[in-house]
């Protein structure tokens, strides 16, 4: 039986709702989708695109293009394309937490999330740094962010930090957690029995034997050696400027970058439209689109749905791996 996934459109004024409408124009065999969102917003998106949409009870079976089982999470006010409203922040966050609750309860095998607008949620009086952090706190888990496309998977030791704060955030615990969480996810969610993880150095040339920084010698290499002794297959630390060469990537299952802009520009250049954002370490698979709300495009029918299609496909595959004996 195909896994049942929760689908959260995200910011109602952005492109998330219309991408969900486009997504359900094709019947899927790899999963069944149940959306959490505002029915009027989804219907308005379908009308703007001139596409069919039939909102169904959450337990209904889809039989035609445009069928979408829905658990309603009504907005406080009617959404307008391209114009955010902080009064709808509670509905956006509520859809995410209700979907997460369903995953934790076992009703759903994973969750796919659309783009949200951090500023408008904060303007609505809800402290919010991102969906990754929200779901981690909700589940009581320490997580790792990974972005992936068909060419490469990049996990991050640190995420949204100023560069001057990065070295202090790379601790023994942070490194160990990033490696072990990534390895577990590669095994459990991707079916890779013996994951090979390339670890990047922090400094140019991976420190050049201490001449360009000592973080590799004093911290990264000792932690890697200890993890190797525990059975992990780790390559590096390698310089970031050469680690992504295709001939090297062929030997890795994932790359572990020390900070956000060390690994993600390469991934996005190699295939931004199909890139997805994964939260590793949750008790369920979570995959998000790798783009923002694109407010100026909302309601115009020109937004590229490729990342959402890839997110659903990836989440379905991860859920299937978790269910496999």
Topology (elements, then pairings):
Elements: E1 4-8, H1 16-23, E2 32-37, H2 39-49, E3 54-56, E4 67-72, H3 89-104, E5 110-113, H4 118-123, H5 131-139, E6 144-148, E7 153-156, H6 166-169, H7 172-190, E8 196-200, H8 215-229, E9 233-238, H9 240-243, H10 246-249, E10 254-257, H11 260-271, E11 276-280, E12 286-289, H12 306-323
Parallel strand pairs: 1-2, 1-5, 2-4, 3-4, 5-12, 7-10, 8-9, 8-10
Antiparallel strand pairs: 6-7, 6-11, 11-12
Helix pairs in contact: 1-2, 3-5, 7-8
Short description:
By secondary structure, this protein is of the alpha/beta class. It folds into two domains: 185 residues, Isopropylmalate Dehydrogenase (3-Layer(aba) Sandwich); 138 residues, Isopropylmalate Dehydrogenase. The longest helix is centred in the middle third of the chain and has 19 residues.
Shape: globular
Q: Please count the helical segments.
A: 12
pLDDT < 50 stretches: none
Largest sheet: 12 strands, mixed
Amount of beta strand: 15-25%
| CATH second-level architecture of the largest domain | 3-Layer(aba) Sandwich
Total E-strand runs:
12
**Largest sheet strand order:** 3-4-2-1-5-12-11-6-7-10-8-9
Keywords for this entry:
325 residues, alpha/beta, Isopropylmalate Dehydrogenase, 2 domains, twelve-stranded mixed beta sheet, 12 helices, 39% helix
Describe this structure as you would to a colleague.
This protein has 325 residues and is an alpha/beta fold. It folds into 2 domains: 1-141 and 282-325, Isopropylmalate Dehydrogenase (3-Layer(aba) Sandwich), CATH 3.40.718.10; 144-281, Isopropylmalate Dehydrogenase (3-Layer(aba) Sandwich), CATH 3.40.718. The chain is built from 12 helices and 12 strands. It has helices at 16-23, 39-49, 89-104, 118-123, 131-139, 166-169, 172-190, 215-229, 240-243, 246-249, 260-271, 306-323, and strands at residues 4-8, 32-37, 54-56, 67-72, 110-113, 144-148, 153-156, 196-200, 233-238, 254-257, 276-280, 286-289. The protein has a 12-stranded mixed beta sheet with strand order 3-4-2-1-5-12-11-6-7-10-8-9. Helix 3 packs across helix 5 (131-139) and helix 7 packs across helix 8 (215-229). The longest helix has 19 residues, at 172-190. The chain is globular and about 60 Å long. The two termini are 14 Å apart.
């Amino acid at each position: 039986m195909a896994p049942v996934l929760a689908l959260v459109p995200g910011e109602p004024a952005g492109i998330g709702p219309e991408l969900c409408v486009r997504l359900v124009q094709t019947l899927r065999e790899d999963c069944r989708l149940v959306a959490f969102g505002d029915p009027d917003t989804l219907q308005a998106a379908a009308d703007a695109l001139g596409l069919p949409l039939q909102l169904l009870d959450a337990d209904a079976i889809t039989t035609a293009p445009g069928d979408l089982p829905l658990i309603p999470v009504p907005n406080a006010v009617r959404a307008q394309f391209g114009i955010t409203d902080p009064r709808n922040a509670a509905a956006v966050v509520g859809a995410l937490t209700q979907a997460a609750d369903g995953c934790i309860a076992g009703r759903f095998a994973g969750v796919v999330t659309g783009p949200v607008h951090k500023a408008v949620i904060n303007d609505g009086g809800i402290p919010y740094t991102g969906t990754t952090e929200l779901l981690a706190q909700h589940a009581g888990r320490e997580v790792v962010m990974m972005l992936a496309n068909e060419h490469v998977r990049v996990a991050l030791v640190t995420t949204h930090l100023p560069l001057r704060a990065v070295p202090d955030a790379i601790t023994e615990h942070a490194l160990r957690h990033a490696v072990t969480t990534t390895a577990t996810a590669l095994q459990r969610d991707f079916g890779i029995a013996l994951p090979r993880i390339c670890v990047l150095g922090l400094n140019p040339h991976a420190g050049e034997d201490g001449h360009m920084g000592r973080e590799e010698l004093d911290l990264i290499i000792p932690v890697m050696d200890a993890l190797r002794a525990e059975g992990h297959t780790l390559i590096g630390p390698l310089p970031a400027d050469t680690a992504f060469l295709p001939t090297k990537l062929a030997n890795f299952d994932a790359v572990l970058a020390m900070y956000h802009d060390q690994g993600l520009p390469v991934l996005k250049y190699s295939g931004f439209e199909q890139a997805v954002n994964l939260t590793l370490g949750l008790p369920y698979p979570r995959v998000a689109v790798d783009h923002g709300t694109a407010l100026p495009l909302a309601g115009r029918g020109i937004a590229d749905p490729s990342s959402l299609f890839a997110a659903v496909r990836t989440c379905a595959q991860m859920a299937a791996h978790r269910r496999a004996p």
